[in-house]
Design brief:
The chain has about 550 residues and is an alpha/beta fold. The chain contains 21 helices and 15 strands. The protein is globular, with a radius of gyration of 25 Å.
């Protein structure tokens, strides 16, 4: 038995085989072949598998975001079996006697250059499509796994860490839990695990060895302990704990339908954070009252090119429809820093967390923001510019005779100390505030949230962070607007009483956190703790 210690960031106990995440990156080797018929058959088999994969993705996209989303993959299917494309590959294999990987690479470059040189913008866009289709075929030929998991059974997934673009492509049905070498409690791997309601452990470093692959593992996301090849007493103890946690969840289910109301009658809205339309099921399953944060950037991360207006419209429409009239807050595109997208071609920055990201990109690239607003902050001028663009889009839609809802509130994320400090002015020009505590903590403490080595310095309970949250809530209420928290701190039960005491109106959390949070709210008497907590928050005796 081998015991490894990390940091638990999503509670629960998972048991299953260990599997190391495989990145889909093929190295192309060029060599001369002997049997051209066998090589051609090899290409045809990879082509057929690629077409099959694209069909599965098309159906998944149709379920999540409608027909427009599915068309991208259906177009790729047609391109994979295009006769000109196929004949060019066959000719090179049989005449040049080159291996299929190198031939597909060359033909892809040739066709992409041909499309890019055309005058028609639609045909120019096909250059990216032929590259994507060819990459898929090459990875199949090379034996590289698409989506990171090549297993017939669910696994506990191990990785150094996962980028947002990688988490998007994971087959969630095959994941029992996560273990990562690095990462942080606010990393996207941790956030995904909490959304899925599965155990996750970070910061195990180099303790996981490649030779552990396939061996039995039990991961305790509460304690951060990983046990490989557990002995019988250890297995029995952890399986008993797992059963107890499942029993507790059954008890929490009895809270479904009950109000989020304290013992002395104070209510708070408990909403959910999601990354894509398919997460709505978890929101409804866990009795979320609405969606407090739809991270729309994941629609971009899931595409090989800028998502069209129709694609985004269908995704937003599905979420609103599935939520059945409940409130949905959509965050406009937030990329940059740890969420990089290749086709945006953003320049490399020394400090991307402080560089060109989120609303700054939207204002610098108005054509992108414009498309998103049609389908659907740190200073007052930025907010005014964003609202001005909203009005321009409304005028366009009116002129084009396209109906739209005029009952859309415009709010802003408060994620920097600058925004918090001038929240009294910002409150005059928006309808609500949503506090992103992950970034607010990072910028307030000058501490990179993704750097696991700084874990003990990344203290979201720091009085400086909590004082800023209190200031923002007070300034919101002075102007008659509501203030919510959508960062991971919203689910921190140690701070629930504090948030209720300072007047936070809404807490948006991962779906699995809704019922534990409701239980905490219903156990609280705000009047008993308000004076004490607020006084302590402003005290000079806090341990910082």
């Amino acid at each position: 038995m081998i015991s490894i210690q990390g940091k638990g960031v999503s509670t629960g106990v998972a048991a299953g085989p260990l599997y190391f995440y495989q990145r889909a990156k093929a190295t192309i080797h060029r060599y001369e072949i002997v049997d051209v018929d066998a090589e051609w058959a090899r290409f045809k088999a990879a082509q057929a598998k690629a077409i099959e994969q694209l069909g599965v993705l098309a159906e998944k996209a149709r379920e999540e975001a409608g027909d427009e989303a599915a068309m991208l993959f259906e177009t790729h299917q047609l391109m994979a079996e295009d006769l000109d494309y196929e004949e060019a590959i066959e000719e090179l294999i049989k005449n040049e006697r080159q291996n299929a990987e190198s031939v597909v690479t060359d033909v892809a470059a040739q066709f992409a250059e041909m499309f890019a040189s055309m005058d028609d913008s639609y045909m120019q866009a096909r250059a990216a499509d032929v590259k994507d289709v060819s990459t898929r075929i090459i990875t199949i030929l090379s034996g590289v796994v698409q989506g990171g998991i090549d297993s017939d059974v669910p696994v506990i997934l191990a990785a150094d860490d996962l980028a947002p673009s990688e988490t998007v492509q994971l087959d969630k049905s095959k994941i029992l839990g996560f273990i990562t070498a690095g990462g942080s409690g606010s990393s996207h791997t941790a956030i995904l695990a909490r959304t899925m309601g599965i155990p996750a452990i970070i910061g195990v470093g180099d303790q996981l060895k490649p030779e552990y692959e396939g061996r039995e593992v039990i991961a305790d996301g509460g304690t951060g302990n990983v046990v490989i090849d557990p002995d019988e007493p250890t297995r029995d103890r952890l399986m008993a704990k797992r059963a107890e946690l499942l029993k507790r969840q059954e008890l929490l289910n009895q809270l479904k339908g009950l109000p989020n109301e304290t013992k002395d009658g104070k209510t708070v809205r408990i909403y959910c954070n999601i990354g894509n339309p398919e997460d709505v099921h978890a929101v409804l399953e866990n009795d979320g009252a609405g969606i407090g944060l739809f991270r729309s950037e994941f629609l971009y991360l899931n595409c090989d090119d800028y998502p069209t207006e129709d694609y985004q419209f269908e995704a937003y429409k599905k979420v609103l429809s599935d939520m059945g009239g409940k409130e949905v807050v959509i965050r406009t595109l937030d990329i940059g820093a740890d969420k990089m997208i290749e086709y945006f071609q953003l320049p490399k920055e020394e400090n991307p967390a402080l560089g060109n990201r989120a609303l700054r990109i939207c204002l610098n690239r108005p054509e992108i923001f414009h498309t998103q607003l049609r389908a659907l902050v740190t200073s007052v001028w930025e907010v005014k510019e964003a609202k001005k663009m909203c009005e321009q889009v409304k005028a366009e839609l009116t002129a084009e005779g396209i109906p739209y809802s005029d009952e859309v509130d415009v709010g802003i994320m408060i994620e920097t100390p600058a925004a918090a400090v001038i929240s009294d002015r910002l409150a005059k020009v928006v309808d609500f505030f949503s506090i992103g505590t992950n970034d607010l903590t990072q910028y307030t403490l000058a501490c990179d949230r993704q750097n696991n080595d700084l874990g003990r310095f990344f203290n979201a309970h720091h009085p400086a962070v909590l004082r800023l949250i209190k200031m923002v809530a007070e300034n919101a209420h002075k102007e008659g607007i509501w203030c919510g928290i959508c960062g991971e701190l919203g689910a921190d039960l140690e701070l629930t009483e504090t948030f209720l005491s300072i007047g936070v109106d809404e807490l948006s959390v991962s779906p699995r956190a809704v019922l534990p949070l409701r239980q905490k709210v219903r156990e609280t008497t705000v009047a008993d703790v308000q004076e004490k907590l607020v006084a302590n928050l402003m005290s000079d005796e806090n341990d910082i």
